[in-house]
Amino acid sequence: MTYKPNTPGTLHLLPTLLGGETIADALPRGTLEIIATLEYFIAENEKSARHFLKLARHPRPLRELRIARFDKDSSAEDARRLLQPVTEGASAGVLSEAGCPGIADPGALLVAAAHQSGIRVVPHVGPSALLLALMASGFNGQRFVFHGYLPVPQAECRAAITALERESRARDQTQIFIETPYRNDALLETLLAVCDNATRLCVVSDLTLPTESVRSATVAEWKKNHLPLGKRPSVFLIYAG
Question: Is 129-239 a CATH 3.90.1150.10 domain?
């Protein structure tokens, strides 16, 4: 790694693909040019990071790059340790397993540590599943909340959906959440069972892929006609405003 003594490096937040292997359709040239300059990466998953860097045609042999793990089990102390080369002058890139670092991703803790250490943080352009889904929904883009995963137990899940629908109506607010792909269809059925017929539901699957699908309709319309989602990465949005 190239160091600039006494001058901290830069922490680059680098979006990755949401799926597939077509880099040119997902990332702008400027982001790819920055990736090519870096030799140190902090990634949610080393294997997927190497695959992504190969697709991005990094000019250095992958074995010569340093890739360190920072995942959901990593701590603030881990963040400070991994940022030490950056405080000493080496710039680094942060890679989520999919999409944007720090958004529904443990990288936020790493970025917070960088700010505390006086390291310059630079976000780069690339796909975010949550923003793309919101864009495609036709729901309120002025007021929205991302809730991550809803509870798995059926009673808790139903209660959470009821609360989110009530809040959406009261605050004129879009509610966004995700699910583990193998539970997609169970969540969809619960949403249709719990939500008011007039509430609008959007499900966006396989974003940026040839198989991408977007459906935004009332719950009543969903009940009349819907196909299984299957195990496709999906984002769910409800709007009762």
Answer: no
* Paired tokens of 169: 């109506």
Q: H helices of 117-209, where?
A: 129-137, 154-171, 184-194
Indicate the fold that domain 10-123 takes in CATH.
Answer: Cobalt-precorrin-4 Transmethylase; domain 1 (3.40.1010)
CA distance 42 to 56: 16
Q: What is the pTM of this model?
A: 0.90
Pairwise pLDDT comparison (24 vs 198), residue with the higher score? 198
Q: How confident is the model at residue 5 (pLDDT cuts 50, 70, 90)?
A: low
Mean pLDDT in residue range 59-73: 95
- Cβ-Cβ contacts under 8 Å for 43 (sequence gap 6 or more): 49, 67, 68, 69, 70, 94, 95, 96, 97
Per-residue pLDDT band at 4 (split at 50, 70, 90): low
Cite the residue boundaries of each domain of the chain with CATH code 3.30.950.10. Answer: 129-239
Q: What is the DSSP letter of 181?
A: G
E strand map for the chain: 10-14, 40-43, 66-69, 92-95, 120-123, 144-149, 174-178, 200-205, 213-218, 234-239
Closest by CA position to 16, among listed 61, 47, 59, 60: 47
* pLDDT per position as a tens digit, 151-209: 999 999 999 999 999 999 999 999 999 999 999 999 999 999 999 999 999 999 999 99
124 is written with which tokens?
Answer: 């780069």
C-alpha distance from residue 60 to each of 54, 64, 74, 87 (Å):
10, 7, 28, 23
